[in-house]
């Protein structure tokens, strides 16, 4: 009997199997994210649920009937290998994965992305598949979310696009409300991944369209958390490439979906609002929004997951780094950056966020007049990044280092060398 001792992912999945609930149903019953259950299934005994979640599992095990407990004990006795064999689903053949596009953006591939987005727009605006197939799509989308932060954006596009097309291939006709809502949730999640990858690659207009598609799909559901998340993520696009004022509008719209509620989405949205206000020079407004972000993050469960679009301490520090740098509080910013980089070292597969933090630090050196140090750090960041991660979003922040250098210091050799690195473009620095 597991009751009274820590649970692992294996035992949690064994209880899910014993209750004969889908990933979605089991997550809803416990009150956790569907991706949390997917993470248990992927890692089994290597994963340890959080203490609060362990209490929920304890409670559920007490509540279930003797038949469920008997099945649970049998699954535990059979072991992980047997569990893996019994839960392998008979999947449809997945659509072929398209080759990774060159960083110069293959026009045929991008045209297919545009066609996929237009198809989604028509389907969601108009819209027979069984629950089991929808569950497979949900599980696959959850897996994409877990892997995304470790995946180069160009590769992410090639892996996500077949999933997008598969979802739409079964949604060409309007489905019953419950099924359609689930399909729209999957579409919104996958659409967010596509939009974010395109944003990193500098495909700004396409990214904006895909954010709109994800928003329309999210609004086709009753999932207010998802609606808030889409808007909060969309705020990143104008922050990096457009108008900070538009970023503020989107961030506030996200918070309005879940007013006063502590959630990943509202914490992210408050931080996004603060960062954009700081860029606009509104220190008081930025401080108020940042205080909300800190409060919301403190009320979350402390999950350290690197799953896409989850908001925890590391991402809070990333945003604080940008806020303090934008406000010119370089001393405070440096303390935040050092703390953030220590945490990110525990996630070596995540490379873009720490690169952006170090570029914030370089901007801080530039603002303080340490021009050579600023350029040296920025150049080191660019050359150390793997080419597939040296994308437009990183180069845009590196260009901001040059912009932060006082006019009197721009004739230095180090500044010229940094300009050349930025001008070389994505993945082409030597």
Q: Return the string of H and E elements.
A: HHHHHHHHHHHHHHHHHHHHHH
Global shape: globular
Structural class by SSE content: mainly alpha
How much of the polypeptide forms β-strand, as a percent range?
A: under 5%
Q: So how many helices?
A: 22
Uncertain runs are: 87-102
Task: Count all strands and give the number.
Answer: 0
Mean pLDDT: 86
The Cα radius of gyration reads 23 Å
- The level of helicity is over 70%
Structure description:
The protein is mainly α. Among the domains are: 78 residues, no CATH class; 117 residues, no CATH class. The chain is 70% helix and 0% strand. Helix 8 runs parallel beside helix 10, helix 14 packs antiparallel against helix 15 and helix 17 packs antiparallel against helix 18. It is globular.
List keywords for this structure.
mainly alpha; 430 residues; single chain
Short description:
With 430 residues, the chain is mostly helical. Helix content is 70%, strand content 0%. The N and C termini lie far apart (58 Å).
Describe the secondary structure blueprint for this structure.
Elements: H1 9-19, H2 23-30, H3 34-43, H4 51-63, H5 66-78, H6 80-86, H7 107-126, H8 131-148, H9 153-169, H10 177-200, H11 204-218, H12 224-234, H13 236-241, H14 244-257, H15 264-279, H16 283-299, H17 313-326, H18 330-344, H19 352-367, H20 371-384, H21 392-404, H22 413-423
Helix pairs in contact: 1-3, 1-5, 2-3, 3-8, 7-9, 7-11, 8-9, 8-10, 9-10, 10-11, 10-12, 11-12, 12-14, 12-15, 14-15, 15-16, 15-17, 16-17, 17-18, 17-19, 18-19, 19-20, 19-21, 20-21, 20-22, 21-22
């Amino acid at each position: 009997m597991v009751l009274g001792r820590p649970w692992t992912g294996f035992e949690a999945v064994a209880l899910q199997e014993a209750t004969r609930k889908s990933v979605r149903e089991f997550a809803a019953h416990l009150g956790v994210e569907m991706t949390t259950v997917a993470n248990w299934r992927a890692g089994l005994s290597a994963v340890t649920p959080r203490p609060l979640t362990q209490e929920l599992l304890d409670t559920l095990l007490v509540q279930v009937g003797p038949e469920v407990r008997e099945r649970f004990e049998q699954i535990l006795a059979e072991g992980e290998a047997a569990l893996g064999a019994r839960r392998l689903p008979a999947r449809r053949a997945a659509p072929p994965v398209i080759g990774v596009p060159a960083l110069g953006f293959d026009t045929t591939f991008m045209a297919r992305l545009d066609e996929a987005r237009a198809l989604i727009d028509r389907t969601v605006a108009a819209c027979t598949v069984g629950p089991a197939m929808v569950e497979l799509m949900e599980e696959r989308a959850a897996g994409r979310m877990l892997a995304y932060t470790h995946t180069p954006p160009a590769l992410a596009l090639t892996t996500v696009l077949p999933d997008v097309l598969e979802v739409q291939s079964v949604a060409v006709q309007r489905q019953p409300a419950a099924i359609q809502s689930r399909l729209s949730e999957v579409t919104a999640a996958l659409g967010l991944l596509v939009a974010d990858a395109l944003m990193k690659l500098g495909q700004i207009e396409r990214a904006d369209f895909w954010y709109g598609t994800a928003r329309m799909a999210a609004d086709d559901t009753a999932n207010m958390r998802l609606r808030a998340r889409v808007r909060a993520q969309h705020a990143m696009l104008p922050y990096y490439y457009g108008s900070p004022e538009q970023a503020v509008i989107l961030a506030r719209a996200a918070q309005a979906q879940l007013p006063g509620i502590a959630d990943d989405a509202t914490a992210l949205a408050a931080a996004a609002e603060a960062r954009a206000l700081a860029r606009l020079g509104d220190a008081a407004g930025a401080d108020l929004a940042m205080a909300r972000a800190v409060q919301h993050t403190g009320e979350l469960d402390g999950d350290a997951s690197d799953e896409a679009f989850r908001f925890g301490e590391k991402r809070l520090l990333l945003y604080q780094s940008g806020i303090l740098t934008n406000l010119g509080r370089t001393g405070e910013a440096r303390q935040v950056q050092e703390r953030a980089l220590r945490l990110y070292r525990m996630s070596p597969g995540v490379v873009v966020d720490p690169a952006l933090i170090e570029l914030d630090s370089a901007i801080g050196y530039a603002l303080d007049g340490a021009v050579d140090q600023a350029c040296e750090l920025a150049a080191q960041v660019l050359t150390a990044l793997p080419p597939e991660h040296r994308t437009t979003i990183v180069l845009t922040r590196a260009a901001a280092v040059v912009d932060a250098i006082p006019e009197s210091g721009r004739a230095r050799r180090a500044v010229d060398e940094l300009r050349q690195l930025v001008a070389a473009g994505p993945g082409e620095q030597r």
